[in-house]
Amino acid sequence: MRKIIHIDMDAFYASVDQRDFPELRGKPLAVGGSPDGRGVVATASYEARKYGVKSAMSSRNALQLCPDLIFTYPRFEVYKEVSNHIRSIFRRYTDLIEPLSLDEAYLDVTDDKLGIGSAIEIAKEIKQAIQDELNLTASAGVSVNKFVAKIASDINKPNGLTFIGPSKIVTFLEQLPIHKFFGVGKVTAKKMNQMGIFTGKDLKRFSELEMVQHFGKSGRFFYRIVRGEDDRPVKPNRISKSIGVEDTFESDLHEYEDMVFEIKRIAEKLYKRLDKAEKFGKTVTVKIKFADFTQITRSKTTVFSLDSQALIESHALGLLDKVDMQDQRVRLLGVTISNFHDQDTIDEVGIQLSLF
């Protein structure tokens, strides 16, 4: 029987900003986006979430819900530094750590380094250490597999700790609303609702074959996890499949020269990230979002790795040049590198893509 902990920081970016800037504490805060309604929210503080503001929401919609919303520009270097400290706390207890992003990770503490033996006690100690050393709060889910532990960590946020033992898993999953299942997005949830599936118990009425027929490979996963079956190991090393940078502009770009300037700036920032991660790939992708929110991507794969800023810039500009703008204004530009030359090797830590 494994002992799995899922740690999820509470409103991570926003909480770090509120910690560092006392004038922001207790106020509705959005990291990312801008007061003029441009961009998207990366993280919202709990004060903002009370108004319905959430991540990936446009600034315009967020302001409609919360007119007093305060925006801050993301400080990714600071967040990464804090994340590294959090992971150093994890390593006191286990080396089996699977980071999902800067603010969450799975830990396998079946055989913990300190011989504590209790996953609940370890989760408590980790939460306390994060509070004492970083003045931040985290929520933890504890169970015998990754799927249930992740769902459990979300139940009593913020600063929660939820244990779902083996004897409670089946009942817990049967009562769980289907949209709460990790891996079930809005589209899938809507399709399931149309099939009469609103809870885990409803889901269990369908055979594995029926699930595969309706949802493909994911159907097999849904069939198993609603029965509490999840033997996926905690993988301490995750493959980083792509690294990218994108920016939403304060004013829409109309002149081609301005777009070229921004692509060059983005390419410079992207190269620094790639160089720091020691990962260079053969595929470059340019993302363009227009003022009407329509979006296109253009990609190109070379026979060699794009291991210099000049190469990244040149190929990204080449892709931009092939796009017929038709006098459209550009709201966002992004460049991503993938198909890494060491794609078959393991990277130590996954890279979280910038939203900006």
UniProtKB/TrEMBL annotation:
<comment type="subunit">
    <text>Monomer.</text>
</comment>
<dbReference type="GO" id="GO:0003887">
    <property type="term" value="F:DNA-directed DNA polymerase activity"/>
</dbReference>
<comment type="function">
    <text>Poorly processive, error-prone DNA polymerase involved in untargeted mutagenesis. Copies undamaged DNA at stalled replication forks, which arise in vivo from mismatched or misaligned primer ends. These misaligned primers can be extended by PolIV. Exhibits no 3'-5' exonuclease (proofreading) activity. May be involved in translesional synthesis, in conjunction with the beta clamp from PolIII.</text>
</comment>
<dbReference type="GO" id="GO:0042276">
    <property type="term" value="P:error-prone translesion synthesis"/>
</dbReference>
<keyword id="KW-0460">Magnesium</keyword>
<dbReference type="Pfam" id="PF00817">
    <property type="entry name" value="IMS"/>
</dbReference>
<keyword id="KW-0235">DNA replication</keyword>
<dbReference type="GO" id="GO:0003684">
    <property type="term" value="F:damaged DNA binding"/>
</dbReference>
<protein>
    <recommendedName>
        <fullName>DNA polymerase IV</fullName>
        <ecNumber>2.7.7.7</ecNumber>
    </recommendedName>
</protein>
<feature type="active site">
    <location>
        <position position="104"/>
    </location>
</feature>
<dbReference type="GO" id="GO:0005829">
    <property type="term" value="C:cytosol"/>
</dbReference>
<dbReference type="GO" id="GO:0006261">
    <property type="term" value="P:DNA-templated DNA replication"/>
</dbReference>
<dbReference type="InterPro" id="IPR053848">
    <property type="entry name" value="IMS_HHH_1"/>
</dbReference>
<feature type="site" description="Substrate discrimination">
    <location>
        <position position="13"/>
    </location>
</feature>
<feature type="binding site">
    <location>
        <position position="8"/>
    </location>
    <ligand>
        <name>Mg(2+)</name>
    </ligand>
</feature>
<keyword id="KW-0479">Metal-binding</keyword>
<comment type="similarity">
    <text>Belongs to the DNA polymerase type-Y family.</text>
</comment>
<dbReference type="GO" id="GO:0000287">
    <property type="term" value="F:magnesium ion binding"/>
</dbReference>
<keyword id="KW-0238">DNA-binding</keyword>
<dbReference type="InterPro" id="IPR050116">
    <property type="entry name" value="DNA_polymerase-Y"/>
</dbReference>
<dbReference type="GO" id="GO:0009432">
    <property type="term" value="P:SOS response"/>
</dbReference>
<feature type="domain" description="UmuC">
    <location>
        <begin position="4"/>
        <end position="185"/>
    </location>
</feature>
<keyword id="KW-0808">Transferase</keyword>
<keyword id="KW-0963">Cytoplasm</keyword>
<dbReference type="InterPro" id="IPR043502">
    <property type="entry name" value="DNA/RNA_pol_sf"/>
</dbReference>
<keyword id="KW-0227">DNA damage</keyword>
<keyword id="KW-0234">DNA repair</keyword>
<dbReference type="Pfam" id="PF11799">
    <property type="entry name" value="IMS_C"/>
</dbReference>
<dbReference type="GO" id="GO:0006281">
    <property type="term" value="P:DNA repair"/>
</dbReference>
<keyword id="KW-0515">Mutator protein</keyword>
<dbReference type="InterPro" id="IPR043128">
    <property type="entry name" value="Rev_trsase/Diguanyl_cyclase"/>
</dbReference>
<dbReference type="Pfam" id="PF21999">
    <property type="entry name" value="IMS_HHH_1"/>
</dbReference>
<keyword id="KW-0548">Nucleotidyltransferase</keyword>
<keyword id="KW-0239">DNA-directed DNA polymerase</keyword>
<dbReference type="InterPro" id="IPR036775">
    <property type="entry name" value="DNA_pol_Y-fam_lit_finger_sf"/>
</dbReference>
<dbReference type="InterPro" id="IPR017961">
    <property type="entry name" value="DNA_pol_Y-fam_little_finger"/>
</dbReference>
<dbReference type="InterPro" id="IPR022880">
    <property type="entry name" value="DNApol_IV"/>
</dbReference>
<feature type="binding site">
    <location>
        <position position="103"/>
    </location>
    <ligand>
        <name>Mg(2+)</name>
    </ligand>
</feature>
<dbReference type="InterPro" id="IPR001126">
    <property type="entry name" value="UmuC"/>
</dbReference>
